[in-house]
Amino acid sequence: MKQKRIRINLEDTEGAKFKFDIEGNVTKDKVLKLFELMDLMNIEEEQTPDLDSVGGKIWNVVENHFPAGKFTSSDVLEKYEDEYNEPIKLSIVSTYLARFASRNKIERARVGREWSYQIIRIAQKHP
After folding, report:
1. Which of 57, 60, 63, 98 has the fewest Cβ atoms within 10 angstroms?
2. What's the first-to-final CA gap in the chain, in angstroms?
């Protein structure tokens, strides 16, 4: 049986880089402990999209073109190709949108044969 291996590379807002490896008998509990450690270290996701990466470009399209309404992966594909003048496969767009949904950046709902997405906006309460 092949050993499982998980590698997580992170960079915080101050530029410090962190590398985490789990090898061998990887369990859900061990992965959760790693995320708890990251939470204790206060490592947060980068707030500005990295426009050198495909994921950053896709997130930029989502934020700029669909800030309030619902959209599909096909909508994002069209805007991406218009904005960056480069082709991209629908499967790549769909994969990134699914990742954004798993990180609670967007909501994902099944509508007919396709997925519909919407940015999650957290309302801040003012005293």
Report:
1. 63
2. 57
Residue of 38, 36, 28 whose CA lies nearest to 8: 38
The model's pLDDT over 102-120, given as tens digits with 9 standing for 90+, comes to 888 899 999 888 899 998 8
User: Greatest CA span in the chain, whole angstroms?
Assistant: 57
All structural domains of the chain with their residue ranges: 4-40, 54-119
**Rounded to an integer, what is the distance from CA 99 to the centroid of its chain?**
4
Q: How many residues does the chain have?
A: 127
CA separation for the pair 21, 3 (Å, rounded): 13
Q: What's the pLDDT at 88?
A: 94
CATH for the 54-119 domain, from 1.10.1200.10, 1.10.10.10, 3.40.50.300, 1.10.3720.10: 1.10.10.10
How many CB atoms sit inside 10 A of residue 81's CB? 14
State the virtual CA torsion across 17, 98, 119, 69 in degrees, nearest 10: 150
